[in-house]
Write a structure and sequence with these properties.
alpha/beta; three-stranded antiparallel beta sheet; binds ligand T4K
Length: 404
């Protein structure tokens, strides 16, 4: 077989018979999930701060090193509740290079997202850029522990303290990561984790807000449950953001395997480093700044020296049934709801724009093994060697699909 025939885009069979997804869920021990379901059904307590939710909250708080954990339906709603509980007004500074939910949560609270640039290597909110745009209208700063890497809390914290505004962390990607000072739960005023199916730890859907502030935690519990402080005692305008018992049980089963999931991610990351070694114009994003990332995302960077563009690499991989994703393209400030809001972009965001055009997330997690990674690396290597032929086929395909 010639090297040319080894690529699906050039007519060979795909490397994988079934799609290899980014974000295939990590699954906890099945027997304990089934057992927990029986317990829930026997107890006839399905939601509303039940025993599973309380146990889950205790475990999360202990792992991330926070005094309080409030489990909620998802991280997007969790962020909204937090902004409401902190009574944030005006503008909120955040990176544009994040999942759109971070911006939407701010906008949904009637606040103005103001986007700041990231640093080129880690893709994290750049404290210098925050310093350049923070001002009298700033009501909060939201850092995102992107790709599992902890933000520069020392620098962001100094800005937030000087301006007397809360520093909130979106840790949707970062369960299991630690900062140089310890658990992420001690950073900032409060932190929101996502427990969505695709995350390190999942509760099917879910979120967890953690904080050391007892009064804030009490407020969040009110807001999560329609503002009820007790039977018929309604104190605040709140919503229904309660986590169900079955979600909490899934979360508990997931937590029991956290160390195993982390080991798997580190092994996969090392395998990708080997498999992609020496590919022209293709590197793995560094994935650490301070502390230790959970390596839940493996992010390819395809620069100008690569014989194929990022999008061409993606199409090559898709043909192989490797469903690599362009997280996050477009970046938030160029998405339709925000792109005409000049107040939201006070300074140019060159690193954000460049990064959103060059990154590609590859499948990892417990559904991906070392042989898969080797095969992905081999196909990518072949594609780069065959770049002119690959490009010609892709151009033909585009021309055909554009034909009326
Ligand atoms: N902040 C940040 C920085 C975030 O990344 C996110 C969410 C949030 C906040 C908000 O957190 P939540 O409110 O969701 O708790 C996905 C997730 O839906 C989203 O949670 C996540 N970030 C984002 C990065 O990725 P999509 O639209 O790409 O998801 P979806 O459903 O296409 O899933 C991705 C891949 O995973 C697919 O190829 C299929 C596979 N998959 C997915 C699910 C749900 C499975 O194999 N099994 C599954 O059960 O947004």
């Amino acid at each position: 077989m010639t090297a040319r025939a080894e690529l699906a885009i050039l007519g060979a069979s795909p490397a994988f018979a079934h799609p290899l997804h980014v974000g295939r869920p990590n699954i906890g021990d099945r027997a304990s999930i089934h057992h927990a379901l029986d317990q829930i059904l026997d107890a006839r307590w399905l939601t509303n701060d039940g025993p599973m939710v309380q146990a889950f909250e205790r475990q999360v708080a202990a792992i991330v090193d926070a005094d309080h954990c409030i489990a909620v339906v998802n991280a997007t709603i969790g962020m909204q509740l937090l902004l409401q509980a902190l009574d944030v007004r005006g503008e909120v500074i955040l990176p544009s290079f994040t999942f759109i939910a971070t911006a939407h949560a701010i906008a949904m609270q009637g606040l103005t997202p103001v986007f700041a640039d990231i640093d080129a290597d880690h893709h994290l909110l750049d404290p210098n850029e925050v310093e350049a745009i923070v001002g009298g209208r700033t009501g909060a700063i939201v850092g995102v522990h992107l790709w599992g890497q902890p933000c520069d809390d020392a620098a962001l914290g100094a800005i937030a303290r000087a301006r007397h505004v809360p520093l909130i962390y979106d840790a949707a990607h970062a369960f299991g990561s630690v900062s140089d000072t310890g658990g992420l739960g001690r950073l900032g005023t409060a932190t929101v984790f996502s427990l969505h199916a695709t995350k390190m730890i999942n509760a099917f859907e879910g979120g967890a807000i953690v904080t050391d502030d007892a009064a804030l935690a009490r407020e969040l519990r009110l807001l999560r449950n329609f503002g009820f402080a007790g039977l018929d005692d309604i104190r605040r305008i709140g919503t229904n953001a309660k986590m169900s018992e079955i979600s909490a049980a899934m979360g508990i089963a997931s937590l029991a395997r956290l160390d195993e999931f982390l080991r798997h991610n580190y092994r996969n990351r090392a395998a990708y480093e080997q498999a992609l070694l020496g590919l022209p114009g293709v590197t793995l994003q560094v994935n650490t700044l301070v502390g230790r990332s959970n390596a839940h995302y493996v992010v390819l960077q395809v620069d100008e020296t690569c014989p194929l563009t990022r999008d061409e690499v993606m199409l090559v991989l898709h043909a192989e049934n490797v469903l690599a994703r362009r997280y996050f393209s477009p970046p938030c400030h160029l998405a339709i709801p925000y792109r005409d809001q000049s107040a939201s972009v006070p300074r140019p965001l060159p690193n954000t724009v460049h990064t959103s055009q060059t990154v590609l997330c590859l499948p990892t997690g417990t559904a991906v093994d070392l042989a898969d990674i080797q095969r992905i690396g081999d196909r990518l290597r072949t594609a780069l060697h065959q770049a002119p032929a690959v490009r010609a086929v892709l151009r033909r395909q585009t021309a055909q699909s554009n034909r009326p």
